[in-house]
Design a protein that fits this description.
Oligomer: single chain
Number of strands: 6
Distance between the termini: 43 Å
Strand order of the largest sheet: 1-2
Order of helices and strands: HEEHHHEEHEEH
Largest sheet: 2 strands, antiparallel
Length: 182
């Protein structure tokens, strides 16, 4: 697998394809059209790779940032950026992914545009609904993954316990051990 899906929310996992945003050189996980195809299949949004082109990749990265910008604004308590909202709304108006029932069950197929439209619609639902208040950013300094905090007390700190949560807890443990030895 080339991609990670720690959030359980596809638009936010899509935003996470630019890793470590605050670093001088963030890691781009959508560096090629083939990696975009992989993202759609690995996320289970589509059962077959849509055959992304360089143009599709550029549009996808624009959409990713048009999802991230309003999310970041929400996290900072600022108004939603109008250009990003306009792009998000434009993409959300696209055709849906094709769902067909066959002898082996349901299959999801579509173009890159259809997959991006589905991501945009879900992002609009998050940002425009009650879930917008649940948006959080991972507390691990090196991680900039955003997620919805659906924990009971709304005190979740990490995008995923098995990755960032474990790293933070292990670092804290090592620091306590080091301090105890001094």
């Amino acid at each position: 697998m080339n991609h990670a899906f720690p959030c359980g929310t596809l638009p936010l996992d899509f935003v996470g394809t630019l890793r470590a945003r605050r670093n001088e050189e963030p890691t781009e996980k959508l560096a090629t059209p083939e990696l975009l195809d992989d993202w759609f299949v690995e996320s289970k949004m589509l059962d077959l790779a849509p055959g992304a082109s360089e143009v599709d990749l550029a549009i996808a990265i624009d959409l990713r940032e048009s999802i991230y910008d309003p999310v970041a604004a929400r996290l900072d308590g600022k108004p939603l950026p109008t250009d990003a909202v306009a792009e998000l709304n434009l993409q959300a108006s696209g055709m849906p992914v094709t769902l067909r029932l066959g002898p082996d069950g349901a299959t999801r197929t579509g173009t890159v545009s259809q997959g991006l439209a589905a991501l945009a619609r879900e992002a609009v639902e998050i940002l425009g609904g009650d879930d917008g208040a649940l948006l959080r950013e991972c507390s691990r300094p090196e991680c900039t993954q955003v997620y919805l905090d659906r924990s009971r007390g709304h005190r979740r700190e990490w995008c995923a316990m098995k990755t960032c949560g474990n790293r933070v807890k292990a670092a804290a443990y090592r620091a306590r051990q080091h301090a105890a030895q001094d």
